[in-house]
């Protein structure tokens, strides 16, 4: 990851969009004059391109070269390397140049910047320090050349090995695997990098060995404080300025200002470079000038000590994971900035090749520099020459005969180290607290402290272990077993369904989720014991469903991804023994093959029932439960009638008992109204889309009702979807029959079936000739659909309604409305089995009507509180709002849906208002959007994640919501000029009409005038004998013309005024044109709330208002 995340930020409004170098287009042939213009434009574009390449390449080099020098001082921070630091610094710069060359040549991004990176240098520093310690312990000692040679060969070899490992990781498509490193551990490591860089800066500036926080007392003397304080203040200065000034030149300018201040101080004090070196401000001069050969003069293979390799292996493994992880994060960050997908495995291979070449040339680990790469991309640089310029400048400094650190003050590099430290610590110690759970944040601190007080490898290993323990504890505490309440998709005879409803609680269904392991075994066993009932219970549950002794326990394994052997023995074996002791059958559903094999090995499936799907398991349990509770005589009775060929008694057994003699069936009536048939298995009864001509009753057999394969696959699923299985004594196609729809589903016989068919025309004839008999069939269908709803929701209201005895006339009169209500609910339940998305749908039009109606309720005084709608509405207010909303839009929403949407709108208003009032956000008045930097957005979104939607789209109706929620709407302020004192008593008796006002600009006068003129012209140009035409015909004619004119003159949804005018024209079609124009002008010129109330009141009150206005006409 990138430690200089704050070093290259560019304002968004000054950035140009990056265009891929692959998307070049050929120019068409142009005339000669145009060709000359094109040549001039191309020359200007080329000069601008080269200017950008030079400018941004130079800026990146100014930032990166000092960083490479600081990184070299961090890698070789051990005091034994200080005399050789000039050569080692240039070796680090060579490594940075090699990385840049590799990325410029091989990266898919032409603007890529790659250098020695902070993610790996801490490990290299740990290796270097470890090698020095090991070689010092060798008896007899070793020379400094041995130390240098062994250290350099080990570091460059580790870098090359890292490159090979990264290449293979990318080749094997394992880039996602290395990202499994827990983020708190990575955060602790990056915090340690920051702290480590800060310590390295202090050690360099004070020229003292500072390896841990325990060594800080060595800096307590006056000279150390004098040497370190300017560098620390310089780092704080750089951090603050880069945070406050969002410009790409901010960091280079601040860095140069530190040098200017230092050299100006030397000039004013009369100090020379020698004086500064003697005091410790600047590093001493090397022995003689440096040549290219001096950089590699310490690589002596014969002086290498191989015994140091083994202790570095754990460090190298940790370095591999951290560098791979951080490189993947860098690629992901670049991908997000590009708005273009990148191949993570390919990019990881690029990083691998770069490290391999760097290691082979004696260099160190590196990767993408995220901030510099994004900086170049957003600056519009799409040329590889930018990277080439950085490479050339670094090589030029390497070839120079002087040592940079012998002339640049230590406090300059100390300031950069302090900047890196402050940036990383602020990001991962301070700000990360807002984006992590407390347990994850504790792991971050734990990793950070272990790395500081013990060692780097232990911090990573123990941090990963702590993250694993936290995961186990969190996983155990999460709900891995849930009780579910479902019924089988089988539609049975009404008597069987009533019996099953009484004893269904004997089937307990538990759904397991995730990986069942030793940690979750106890929780699952406790849940099983909690939900089963081992003795007969007579009381009723809270939903008035009888509770009986548990007979079956179904465990649904559809969401289970695996089971370990400990869970098999400690959980499922113990569960089976407990259930067997109480006579409860254990049923397994949807067992994965691996889990089933594990259960077989432990004989867990013996004497247990296993089914492929949950539906099959529930169906088997229900069938068995019916047999256990006396359903067999019902089936035997049906079989007896069928075997004897007694069709009439068979059909009679499926109907409610007759209340009168003329409601009984006879063979003649069955032959008159019904068609009976035997159908083989696999026969299509009807298909989806067929017209509904009648209804079926299954006398014997099974019929599957399903979503056809083509429809189901179009919805994104595979194969066909069975919705319900209709069995003996159940109705088929009754919902479609009641709703007069085409068939929504397809019905096909599953087994040989005997069917009764009642045609629509035959049912209508039965209602006329035999109304009491028809009422039995209507009641049977009503009971069937009502039972289905009751089974699905566990309510008792419909069961009690079924017990009510009504006369045949009463049943006939209420049949249509009740059946329509139940059938609609039934259809919703059917389709909800395929899609769980049954919530209300909202758009701008519906939001506008909701806000309009809410405003009207506040005006009418139906709100809670004194003068604002922030407290919500009273009960009558919500009732009126619901009526207005549904009537305006032609919907059938519930009050709870409106209340839920209003809560969402209030939350959105609060967030949007905070954005408008936040001083850190500017405002774009043209697009009505907040504007801020990425850091400001990130900080605000950490508290309010929903705010991110307002980066690209404003909150519609903000002004209207703000008026309501801020108390600007005053109850009763309708500005009705007709409300005189004399008329107040008369108007007080009117029905109050709360609703309607979208606090938006009124419709333009041209649109209103066109609408009024069209209506008035229609009436004035009518033929003289129009008064002889029927009034309803004239009303229909006026309504059609007004609606067409409204459609032609309106763009978008109608405004409140347009709806009011349209309503008025339809209502007052018989008035003369002058009267229509008079009242239309009253609506258009009056206060907005006048239009609101007119839209809400009933027709009688509308006429009172119309008469009041027209009565004032002189």
Automatic annotation (TrEMBL):
Residues 664-784 form the Cyclic nucleotide-binding domain. It comes from the Eukaryota. Gene3D superfamilies: Jelly Rolls, STAS domain. It is a multi-pass membrane protein. It is found in: Membrane. Keywords: Membrane, Transmembrane, Transmembrane helix. Residues 497-621 form the STAS domain. GO terms for cellular component: membrane. The keyword Transmembrane helix applies. InterPro entries: cNMP-bd_dom (IPR000595), cNMP-bd_dom_sf (IPR018490), Membrane-Transporter-like (IPR052706), Myb/SANT-like_dom (IPR024752), RmlC-like_jellyroll (IPR014710), SLC26A/SulP_dom (IPR011547), STAS_dom (IPR002645), STAS_dom_sf (IPR036513). Residues 969-998, 1015-1042 are annotated as: Disordered. PROSITE patterns: CNMP_BINDING_3, STAS. The chain crosses the membrane at residues 53-76, 119-135, 147-168, 180-203, 224-242, 248-268, 317-336, 356-375, 387-405, 411-430, 437-454, 460-478, 499-525. This is Sulfate Permease (SulP) Family. It comes from Achlya hypogyna (Oomycete). The lineage of its organism: Eukaryota, Sar, Stramenopiles, Oomycota, Saprolegniomycetes.
């Amino acid at each position: 990851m990138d430690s200089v995340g704050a070093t290259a930020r560019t304002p968004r409004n000054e950035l140009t969009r990056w265009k891929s170098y692959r998307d070049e287009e050929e120019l068409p042939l142009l005339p000669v004059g145009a060709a000359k213009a094109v040549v001039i434009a191309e020359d200007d574009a080329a000069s601008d391109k080269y200017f950008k390449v030079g400018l941004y390449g130079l800026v990146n080099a100014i930032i990166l070269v000092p960083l490479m020098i600081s990184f070299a001082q961090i890698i070789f921070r051990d005091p034994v390397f200080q005399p050789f630091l000039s050569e080692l610094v240039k070796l680090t710069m060579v490594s940075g140049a090699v990385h840049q060359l590799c990325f410029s040549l091989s990266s898919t991004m032409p603007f890529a910047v790659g250098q020695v990176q902070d993610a790996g240098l801490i490990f290299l520093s740990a290796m270097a320090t470890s090698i020095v310690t090991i070689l010092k312990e060798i008896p007899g000692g070793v020379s400094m050349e041995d130390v240098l040679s062994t250290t350099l060969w080990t570091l460059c070899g580790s870098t090359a090995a890292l490159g090979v490992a990264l290449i293979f990781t990318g080749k094997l498509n394992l880039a996602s695997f290395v990202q499994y490193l827990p983020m708190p551990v990575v955060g602790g490591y990056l915090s340690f990098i920051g702290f480590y860089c800060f310590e390295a800066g202090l050690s360099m500036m004070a020229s003292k060995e500072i390896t841990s926080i325990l060594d800080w007392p060595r800096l307590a003397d006056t000279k150390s404080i004098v040497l370190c304080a300017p560098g620390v203040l310089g780092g704080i200065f750089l951090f603050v300025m880069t945070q406050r000034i969002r410009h790409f030149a901010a960091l280079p300018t601040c860095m140069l200002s530190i040098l200017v201040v230092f050299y100006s101080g030397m000039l004013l004090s009369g100090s020379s470079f020698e004086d500064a070196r003697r005091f410790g401000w600047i590093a001493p001069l090397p022995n003689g000038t440096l040549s290219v050969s001096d950089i590699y003069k310490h690589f002596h293979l014969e002086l290498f000590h191989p015994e140091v390799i083994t202790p570095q292996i754990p460090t190298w493994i940790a370095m591999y994971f951290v560098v791979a992880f951080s490189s993947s994060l860098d690629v992901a960050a670049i991908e997000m900035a590009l708005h273009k997908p990148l191949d993570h495995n390919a990019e990881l291979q690029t990083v691998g090749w770069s490290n391999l070449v760097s290691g082979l040339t004696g260099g160190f680990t590196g990767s993408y520099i995220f901030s510099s790469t994004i900086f170049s991309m957003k600056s519009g640089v799409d040329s590889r020459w930018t990277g080439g310029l950085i490479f050339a400048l670094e090589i030029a400094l390497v070839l120079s005969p002087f040592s940079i650190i012998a002339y640049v003050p230590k406090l300059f590099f100390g300031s950069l180290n302090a900047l890196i430290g402050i940036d990383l610590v602020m990001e991962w110690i301070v700000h990360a607290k807002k984006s992590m759970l407390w347990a994850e944040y504790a792991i971050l601190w734990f990793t950070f402290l272990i790395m500081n007080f013990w060692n780097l490898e232990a911090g990573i290993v123990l941090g990963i272990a702590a993250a694993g323990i936290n995961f186990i504890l969190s996983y155990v505490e999460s709900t891995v077993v849930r009780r579910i309440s479902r019924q089988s998709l089988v539609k049975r005879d009404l008597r069987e369904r009533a019996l099953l409803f009484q004893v269904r609680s004997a089937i307990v269904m538990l759904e397991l989720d995730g990986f069942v392991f030793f940690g979750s075994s106890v929780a699952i066993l406790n849940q099983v014991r909690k939900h089963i009932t081992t003795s007969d219970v007579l009381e009723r549950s809270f939903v008035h469903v009888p509770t009986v002794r548990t007979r079956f326990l179904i465990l649904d394994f559809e969401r289970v991804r695996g089971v370990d052997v400990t869970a098999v023995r400690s959980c499922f074996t113990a569960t089976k023994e407990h259930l067997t002791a109480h006579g409860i059958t254990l049923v397994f559903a949807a067992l994965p093959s691996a889990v089933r094999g594990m259960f077989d090995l432990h004989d867990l499936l013996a004497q247990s029932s296993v089914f492929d799907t949950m539906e099959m398991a529930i169906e088997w349990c229900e069938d068995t439960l019916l047999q256990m509770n006396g359903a067999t005589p019902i089936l035997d009775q049906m079989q007896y009638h069928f075997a004897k060929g007694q069709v009439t008694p068979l059909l009679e057994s499926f109907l409610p008992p007759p209340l009168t003699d003329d409601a009984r069936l006879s063979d003649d009536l069955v032959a008159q109204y019904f068609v009976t048939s035997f159908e083989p298995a696999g026969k299509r009864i009807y298909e989806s889309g067929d017209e509904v001509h009648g209804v079926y009753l299954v006398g014997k057999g099974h019929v599957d009702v399903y979503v056809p394969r083509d429809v189901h696959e179009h919805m994104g699923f595979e194969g066909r979807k069975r919705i319900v299985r209709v069995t003996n004594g159940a109705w088929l196609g009754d919902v479609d029959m009641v709703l007069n729809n085409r068939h929504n589903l397809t019905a096909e016989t599953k087994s040989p079936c005997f069917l009764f068919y009642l045609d629509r025309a035959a049912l209508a004839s039965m209602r006329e000739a035999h109304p009491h008999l028809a009422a039995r069939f209507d009641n049977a269908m009503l009971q069937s659909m009502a039972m289905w709803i009751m089974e699905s929701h566990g309510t008792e209201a419909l069961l009690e309604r079924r017990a009510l005895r009504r006369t045949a006339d009463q049943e006939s009169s209420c049949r249509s409305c009740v059946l329509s209500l139940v059938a609609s609910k039934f259809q919703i339940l059917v389709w909800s089995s395929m899609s769980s998305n049954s919530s209300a749908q909202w758009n701008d039009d519906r939001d506008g009507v909701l806000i309009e109606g809410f405003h009207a309720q506040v005006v009418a005084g139906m709100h809670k509180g004194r003068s604002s709608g922030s407290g919500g509405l009273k009960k009558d207010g919500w009732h009126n709002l619901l009526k207005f909303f549904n009537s305006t839009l032609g919907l059938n929403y519930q009050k709870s849906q409106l209340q839920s949407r209003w809560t969402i709108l209030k939350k959105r208003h609060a967030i949007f208002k905070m954005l408008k009032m936040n001083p850190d956000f500017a405002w774009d008045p043209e697009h009505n959007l907040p504007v801020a930097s990425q850091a400001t957005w990130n900080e605000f979104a950490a508290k309010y994640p929903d705010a991110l939607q307002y980066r690209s789209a404003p909150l519609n109706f903000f002004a209207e919501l703000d008026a309501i929620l801020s108390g600007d709407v005053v109850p009763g302020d309708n500005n009705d000029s007709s409300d005189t004192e004399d008329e107040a008593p008369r108007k007080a008796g009117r029905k109050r009409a709360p609703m309607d006002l979208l606090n938006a600009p009124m419709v333009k006068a041209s649109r209103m005038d066109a609408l009024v003129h069209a209506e008035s012209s229609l009436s004035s140009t009518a033929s003289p004998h129009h008064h002889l035409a029927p009034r309803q015909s004239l009303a229909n004619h006026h309504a059609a013309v007004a609606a067409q004119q409204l459609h032609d003159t309106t763009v978008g949804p109608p405004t409140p005024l347009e709806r009011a005018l349209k309503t008025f024209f339809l209502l007052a079609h018989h008035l003369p044109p002058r009267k229509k124009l008079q009242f239309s002008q009253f609506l258009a010129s009056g206060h907005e709330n006048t239009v609101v109330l007119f839209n809400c009141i009933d027709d009688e009150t509308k006429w009172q208002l119309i008469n009041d206005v027209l009565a004032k006409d002189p």
